[in-house]
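Re: the 472-residue chain
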Amino acid sequence: MLKQPGPTLHKTTRTEITPLFGQAKLVMDETPKAITPFGGLASFISFLGQIGFAGEVQRRLPFAEPASNNAIPLAHALTAFLMSVVVGARRFAHCQWLRADHVLHAMLGLERFPGDDTIRNFFLRFSQSHIESFWRPLWRWLLLLLRCPAKGFSLDLDSTVFCREGQQEGARKGFNPRRKGRNSHHPLLAVLAEAVFVLHGWLRSGNTGPARGVVAFLQEALALLPEGTWIRTVRADSGFFDQALLEFLEARDLPYVIVARLTTNLKRRCAGIKDWTVIDEHHDAGEFTLKLFGWSKERRFVVVRERVRDSKAAVGRRLIDVPGYTFRIWVTNRTDSALELWRDYNQRACIEQRIEELKHDLAADGFCLQPFFATESAFLAVLFTFNLLSLYQQQTTPESPYRQPGTLRTAVFLCGAVLGVMGRDAVVKLSTAWGGLAKHKPLVEATLNWLNVPSPKLVPPLDRLAMGGGMI
């Protein structure tokens, strides 16, 4: 008796699906054409080409290229990581997404796209000396592309927490509001508020305090600034209320406004203020000078009190001796009025948004390796990507408001495209349903005009110290 053949899917058998709404059948088929959902990256890749990204990275790499003829160049591995972060990768394994995107490979000029293991191995090469010799010069190069505002930059300091699962180097138990008692890293960041640009970043052990090493951190940050760039003010929260930091800033004539930690002496002085200046019906301002224990001199303190009301949550701390109000206190060496200082410091809230964008849009906390400096190098690569996206926006849409990386990804970079051929030229055909050339051609042309934009004349105010050129 002949054995009956098992059921097989004949090559001419159609695969159909039924739409969720409706009865018409949809036939599934395949195409050999290269297709990408990220055709909108064309303008960003054009921008990278205009600023000389590839050449600068290759010139600064502290490692010799692998000797194998089959090895992927190191600059390609870093570029692949940056592109993976831009399109939404949150782990090293997610870098595999783009290995089949031959349209993106063509736009980048990559014959082969590295896998996640190749990218991990790239970062595993880094030691502390490699970070200093590679990332710091790259930051100085990128800072040269910034335009300093007429009044100078506001430099905001803050720290955050990266939760860790495992026993990675530097992962320790410390302040961790979301997962108490778990290991973490505690990065420190300095952001130029007006430029939406991360000036400097450190990855630190999870058991460090906010102000740990902040003086050395600021020395490095200020040394990165190019000549002719100056700092208008330094702003920080109460985690940086530290005598060593204040003396460092005062020695360099840097204006600052820093939230004061409410010690017993400060609470007593706040409760004793008699002369309050009315700001509005809910806020009053006052000030005093005080030399705290261990300080070398008196300093100016500015106080804003807010009336507690049911319609709005009041910001600040309450004092038992003065019921019905919350208090916020800043220490400063500036001569501005209390109202101006209060309004200026409130702009510092932007650094909280930048940190959230780094963590939620670019997954700065998601790329972790066992060696500490490998993790720090990946962290710096994400910060570098953030800065590139910020500069890209300043060049392509200078009149438009700043857009977060996640918004930029969905509003600009997400665009269906097909790779084709026209004569001897490769052609990327953008989908008109996603805006097509009408949307993306002006962005590409804006990047091509990068070198034609004149730099503004930088003449620092007489009462401010120019910090660029290593004048620290």
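The chain has 14 helices and 18 strands.
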